[in-house]
Backbone:
């Protein structure tokens, strides 16, 4: 695979252009084109420079190969990478803006029992440019139709962002850079299964994104049943790291809790959550399990999910049930990619 030009920050691009012996303003032309999601071959620069770049760099590192559109405006994409790997993403319209969910890895090695992304293990990390290009490709597609592009980003697609820390951090820098597409860290949410040392590193990185933790259980033993990472870091350690994140960034953190029937959704579980989280500057986001056909775990009904939320609220927690979007086009949390790979092999 060739290198990826979108991995570079603007100043790195300037250095590259200088190394090529080209005039400095070419860097700006190139950067503007890249940030519009253009292929290198479609950017208006001298053909000699274009040719040199194309020898070393991928023309189109991330290509949309399939789009599914839901009645509620949600769009799901399959992207192909230069080496033929497939990843997926989702674009959702909210009142406050348009949120794109990006993947950070091809597959995942965290092994959570309810998650489809982890079924085939980790294939490889995405580079920062490949993460950025998911946003750029969607922006470009929308601008063709004169539609508003991405205003918010969530790192909640396939992969564990903190297991690909350096590339994720570089992506966060590049996507929020002034002069680029400029999505502020405040409009970005990073979701992690809880790799504790990396939460501290993220807190110290000076990019105050919203931190979201996949909790899904109230005890370490219970959590370890569905999330192998729980054997490495305890809930207490995760909460301590969240406290540090709050002190450093002033950002309230969020817990994701995917409701699984007979596993984590009883009155005792609600009481456990209240005991664990009461008084903390946090919010609980309840997710209805997307049933994965390869797994046997079962979802709760809407009514049961709202009843669980009400118990948390009554106990003094701030909690909401996440609105289910794009239900008519199916395939959440890695399921689209999994079904694509299955039917194309
Ligand atoms: N690796 C990151 C991002 C994962 S996806 C993390 O672990 O946080 C975002 C959220 O969806 C996580 O909370 C994840 O646990 C949850 N999730 C994964 N598969 C799911 C499924 N089938 N149903 C409901 N939630 C799921």
Residues:
């Amino acid at each position: 695979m060739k290198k990826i030009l979108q991995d570079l920050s603007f100043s790195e691009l300037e250095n590259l252009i200088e190394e090529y012996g080209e005039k400095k303003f070419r860097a700006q032309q190139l950067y503007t084109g890249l940030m519009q999601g253009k292929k290198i071959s479609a950017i208006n620069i001298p053909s000699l420079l274009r040719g040199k770049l194309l020898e070393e760099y991928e023309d189109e590192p991330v290509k949309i190969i399939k789009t599914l559109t839901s009645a509620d405006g949600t769009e799901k994409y399959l992207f192909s990478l230069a080496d033929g790997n497939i990843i997926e993403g989702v674009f959702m319209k909210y009142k406050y803006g348009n949120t794109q969910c990006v993947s950070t890895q091809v597959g995942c090695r965290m092994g959570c029992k309810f998650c489809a992304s982890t079924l085939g293990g980790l294939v490889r990390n995405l580079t920062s440019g490949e993460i950025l290009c998911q946003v750029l490709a969607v922006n470009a597609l929308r601008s063709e139709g004169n539609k508003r592009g991405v205003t918010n980003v969530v790192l909640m697609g396939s992969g564990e962002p903190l297991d690909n820390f350096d590339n994720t951090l570089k992506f966060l820098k590049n996507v929020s850079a002034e002069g680029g597409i400029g999505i502020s860290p405040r409009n970005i949410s990073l979701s992690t299964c809880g790799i504790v040392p990396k939460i501290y590193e993220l807190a110290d990185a000076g990019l105050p994104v919203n931190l979201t933790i996949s909790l899904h259980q109230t005890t370490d033993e219970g959590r370890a049943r569905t999330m192998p990472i729980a054997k490495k870091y305890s809930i207490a350690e995760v909460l301590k790291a969240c406290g540090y994140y709050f002190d450093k960034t002033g950002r309230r953190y969020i817990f994701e809790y995917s409701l699984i029937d007979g596993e984590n959704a009883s009155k005792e579980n609600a009481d456990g959550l209240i005991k664990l989280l009461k008084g903390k500057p946090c919010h609980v986001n309840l997710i209805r399990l997307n049933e994965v056909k390869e797994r046997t775990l079962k979802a709760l009904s809407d009514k049961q999910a709202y009843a669980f939320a009400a118990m948390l609220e009554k106990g003094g927690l701030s909690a909401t049930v996440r609105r289910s979007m794009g239900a008519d086009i199916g395939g959440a949390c890695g399921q689209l990619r999994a079904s694509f790979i299955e039917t194309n092999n």
About this structure: Residues 112, 114-115, 156, 160, 191-193, 214, 256, 258, 287, 289-290, 292, 333 surround S-adenosyl-L-homocysteine (CB under 6 Å). The chain has eleven helices and twelve strands. The longest strand covers residues 86-94.
